[in-house]
Amino acid sequence: EDAPQLSPTWNNMGSIYLRQGNTELALEYHQRALNIQLKSPSPDLPSIISYSNNIGGVYLKLERYDEALVHFKRALQIEVQTLPKNHPELAGTYHRIGGVYFRQNN
Question: In 3D, which of 3, 6, 33, 5 has the Cα closest to residue 18?
Answer without folding.
Answer: 33
